[in-house]
Amino acid sequence: MQELTLITPTFLFSAISLLLLAYTNRFLSYAQLVRTLKDRYMEDHSALTRAQIVNLRRRLYLTRNMQLFGVGSLFLCVVTMFLIYIGLQILSAYIFGLALLLLILSLALTVMEIRISAKSLEIYLSNMENEK
C-alpha cells in the first residue's frame, strides 16, 4: 500500500463540500414543499396529496442520511489528516478507507433519492393525464 500524504484526503474536501451544498439545497426545497403540501392537504384530503406526502417523507429520510454520511466522510478525512500529521500512517489509511466508504454510501442514497423523486413527478403526470 502506498503511503498517504496530507494532500490525499484534501482531494475529497471540495467534492464532499459540493455534495453537502447540493444536499442542503435539496433539503431546503423539501422544507418549502412540505409547507405547500400541508396547506393543500388541509384544504383537500386528496389521494394525490397523500401520495406526495408519503413520497416526500421517504425523500426527507434519505436526504437526512445522505447528509449524515457526507458529514461523516468529511469528518473522517480531517481525522485522517490529523493521523498522518502525527505519524500514524497505518491507522490513517484505514480511517481514510472508512471515509471513502461513507462517501460511497452517501452517493448510493443519492441515487435512491433521485429514483423516488422521479416517481413523485410520475404521480403528478399520471394525475394530469387522468384529469383529461
Notable traits:
mainly alpha; elongated; single chain
Q: What characteristic shape results from the CA principal axes?
A: elongated
Radius of gyration based on Cα positions: 20 Å
Main sheet, how many strands, which sense, barrel?
none
Helix coverage percent:
over 70%
Number of domains: 1
Task: Assess the beta-strand content as a share of residues.
Answer: under 5%
Please state the structural category.
mainly alpha
The stretches of 5 or more residues where confidence is low (pLDDT under 50) are: none
The chain-level mean pLDDT equals 85
How many β strands by DSSP?
0
The SSE string, one letter per element, is HHH
Task: Enumerate how many helices there are, as a single number.
Answer: 3
What features would you describe in this structure?
The structure is a single chain. The chain is mainly α. It has helices spanning 7-43, 47-85, 89-131. It has one domain. It is 90% helix and 0% strand. α2 runs antiparallel to α3 (89-131). The mean pLDDT is 85.
Short recap of the structure:
The chain has three helices and no strands.
Helices, strands, pairings?
Blueprint (H helix, E strand, L loop, with lengths): L6 H37 L3 H39 L3 H43 L1
